[in-house]
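Loading example: each entry is read as two labelled lines plus one structure line.
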Amino acid sequence: MIIVNTGNGKGKTTAAIGQIIRSLGRGWKVCLVQLFKGKEFYGEQHILRKLKNLDFYSFAPKHPFCFPEVSKKKASEQCRAALAFFRTITEEKPGHYQLIVLEEFIIAIREGYIALDELLKTLDAVPDNTHVLLTGRGAPRELIRKADLVTEMKEIKHPFSKGQRAQKGIEF
Amino acid sequence: MIIVNTGNGKGKTTAAIGQIIRSLGRGWKVCLVQLFKGKEFYGEQHILRKLKNLDFYSFAPKHPFCFPEVSKKKASEQCRAALAFFRTITEEKPGHYQLIVLEEFIIAIREGYIALDELLKTLDAVPDNTHVLLTGRGAPRELIRKADLVTEMKEIKHPFSKGQRAQKGIEF
């Protein structure tokens, strides 16, 4: 099953983390591939790193928008490496993971760092007994069409819009 | 801060679980109060139970809709006990928890098992250094007004609507 968490609201990543915890609780093997998330930046990473049956990889830790010293070319190379990694595990370890989470891959598509076609082709090669969960705002129509379960996390109210900064423990 | 995860889509509970993991990763003390969730039913419970700094309580494990042998009166008593418990920890241990998660309390309000007024009054008494996250579809307007951060998890596509049953590891 292909699952998509999209939308402009809070909850895309935390719902993915919660899904990982639920799946691990069933004894599943889970692979998390994160984009644009510094390895030490997010609170959840300290807990996830210790959990059994979870393999955790991080690519393109610095997004050019936040780190102007990182070129778009560099970010694109790193995102393409992440997609190649996803392709490798689906080809070389088919069915090894019951859940693969592709964090912020939708952002990488939206910004043109990876090609939608290539991602869709790789998703086609995933065996039926592996679920793939993708996150990121602005999911393209073709991905929504291919997915089985899509949730839009829609912002109704957020303190950011009142100018409040991201809070440690809540947003990261 | 008061946070609300509502809407008809998947992700309200998993986002709450993910939020708990993030907060625990910051060394926060977290209290999870669940309604309508059998203690052994959800995959995540097996992992959550082992985590340090998380106190985990379950009330009204059987919802009358799923278990007709449970009367609405019984369910209402159990939900009111959960609300009383929440009130007790905010009064007797103010600031002890940095995050309190009230799972499905919005359902309990919607079904009249607990009174919205009483919940709102209890939320008013929560100290500023404690965040409260409430989940459940159909959040009432008064709660949204009081909350600082509200996300609607909106169903765009779900296999349930094609008649597929809930999948272990994904939905529970």
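Residues 72-92 of chain A form the longest helix (21 residues).
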